Each structure stands twice: as C-alpha cells, then as structure tokens.
Amino acid sequence: MSLDLANYQGKVVEAVKAFWGNREAARWKQIESGKTDQGERAGVTGGKNMDGFLALIKDLVQLNGLEGAEIHLQRRALTLPGFFRPTKLWDILVINEERLVAAIELKSQVGPSFGNNFNNRAEEAIGTGIDLWKAYREEAFGPIPRPFVGWLILVEDCTGSRSPVRDRSPHFPCWKSLTARHTLTDTISSAGSSYRNNSTLLAPCSCHHAPP
Q1: 51 contacts 92 by C-beta, under 8 angstroms
Q2: Is 90 exceeded by the pLDDT of residue 87?
Q3: Residue 181's Cα: distance from chain center in Å?
Q4: CA-based nearest residue to 131, from 72, 191, 77, 198
C-alpha cells in the first residue's frame, strides 16, 4: 500500500506563508495594544505560527490508515512520560487503541540571533530524542511497537542560517576546521537524527585528536 502524501508540497508552501503571516499579525497586535515584546519575540507569542504544519501532519495520519486515531493538539493532552525527566509536553500526539503511535515536536528558528539560539535547538532535539527512547525501552508507554517520533524545524533562509559556525577555542585544531564549515542547517539536520538512532552531532575526524 503506497502512502498518500496529502499534497504535502502545496500544503508546506501554505504552511510557510501562514507562519510568516501569523508572526506579522502577532507583531501588529502587540503594537496596537502598546505592549510590544523585544526583538523577534513579538512575532512568536501568538502561539499559532506552526498551525499549518500541524494540519498537514493530521491529514497525513488520517489518509494513511488511521482514520479513527486520536490526534491530540490541545496542551492538556500532550504530555508523555520521560526517563531523565518526569514528563515532556509535545506538539502533536497520535494515539490509536490506547497505544502511542506518534509524537512530534515543531520548532522554528528565525534571525537575526542564530548564534544565540541554535545551540539550544540542537540540545532540545538530542535530549528529547534520547529521553523518549530511553523511556520507551523501559516500557514507560507499555509493551507497544516502536512509535514514530519526529522533530520538525522551520529555519529562515538567510545569511545567518547559511554562514559557517566559528569556533574561537585555541584547542583541537581539527575540530576548529570542522566547525568552520558547519552551518546552522548542518547542525539541525544532525540533531534531528537523534530521534532516529540517538547519533550525536560530532562528525568523525581524520586526525588523531579525540573530540572535546
């Protein structure tokens, strides 16, 4: 049985348009109220920026054999147990016949402060993935088949997100060379892999130095 991709390419385009439209609407709403957050935060406090992606994920679930599944989008029903921390709040959970089918996290990264924030995003992706799979191995969700776990991030395409990461450490010259060509996009892609196989961000090095 082939997958029905729910015209995802067109819906992603609309989701990205909605993301920027919702950010701008939130910013103007704050300006009109006279209570404006500083910097980019003014565009994110509305809380609806990624709703287009939530709708796409919901369509994908319903069109591929899980018409009767419970798709939770409301905050009160989005908590799962962890292992290294007691609970984790997700953006979308799919439950079918009282079994966890999927858990998905949605994030966004918009400039200009990429350098101040992308480490946090990488740590969130790695930590959440490792925590959930450890909880799964300990049967925190019961004896269920391996669920689908996803982490989707929308990154603004601009100079800041495409610029190499600079490392000012005087040690480990081989790792300095690696980070000099490592962009935010590379980091996010690597971090997301922790959801699949708990791999790390550090790429192998051809010289004899161990990673810091």
Answers
A1: no
A2: yes
A3: 23
A4: 198
Q: Is 54 helix (H, G, I), strand (E, B) or coil?
A: helix
Q: Is the per-residue pLDDT at 129 higher than 60? A: yes
Count how many Cα atoms sit within 13 Å of the Cα of residue 79 in the half-sphere of its side chain: 6
pLDDT in tens, 161-203: 887 766 666 665 555 555 555 565 665 565 555 555 443 333 3
Across all residues in the chain, what is the average pLDDT? 78
Q: DSSP letter string over 103-129?
A: EEEEEEE-SS-HHHHHHHHHHHHHHHH
Domain ranges of the chain: 1-65, 70-200
CA atoms of 81 and 128, how far apart (whole Å): 11
User: Tell me, what's the pLDDT at 75?
Assistant: 79
* Burial label, 1 (beta-carbon count in 10 A; 0-12, 13-18, 19+): exposed
Tokens of 119: 């480490």
pLDDT tens digit string along 35-49? 655 545 444 433 478
Sign of the C-alpha dihedral computed for residues 74, 76, 80 and 84 taken in this order: positive
* Strand, helix or coil for residue 10: helix
84: tokens are 């290294």
- Give the span between the Cα atoms of 88 and 121, in whole angstroms: 15
Residues belonging to the chain:
212
